[in-house]
Amino acid sequence: MRVAIVGSRHFSQPERVTGNVKGRPARASLITGSASGVDAAATKAARERGLGVQVMPASFDEMSDASKSAARNQRRPPACGVLGPSGGAPPSASRPTGERALNAGKEVHVFVATTIK
User: Fold this and answer.
1) pLDDT in tens, 48-105
2) C-beta of residue 86 within 8 angstroms of C-beta of residue 111
3) Distance of alpha carbon 59 from the chain centroid
4) Predicted pLDDT at 76
5) Which CATH number characterizes residue 46's domain?
6) What sign does the dihedral 100-102-105-110 (CA atoms) show?
7) Angle ∠(16,20,24) on CA atoms, nearest 5
8) Which domain holds residue 78?
9) How high is the pLDDT of residue 90?
10) How far apart are CA 75 and CA 88, in angstroms?
11) What pLDDT does residue 48 have?
12) Considering the domain boundaries, does residue 117 fall inside one?
């Protein structure tokens, strides 16, 4: 099972991402963009558990051309069986990726930061 990881660099509960990845079967592997936040937490947890990690990093070209970033994000859902966890990312980033995954019949997990008072 290949799991694509997308999400915010500023998700306030990285331990939820870590727990999700550590709960994946031993045959699972991750696809990640290698950013800080959700990507970094998932990558660290996968490596600690001995899961495979495929990195699809951003390029310098994407800084000046948003369409190149969008094209990279479009490659992730078809490459995976499960998309998740996603947490706290702006709708302009994670939502379209999640919608593409759902439209392709993929399983999608979404984490929303919670506050307990």
Assistant:
1) 999 999 887 777 676 677 777 667 666 666 666 665 555 554 444 567 777 777 787 8
2) yes
3) 17
4) 62
5) 3.40.50.450
6) positive
7) 165
8) 2-111
9) 47
10) 21
11) 94
12) no
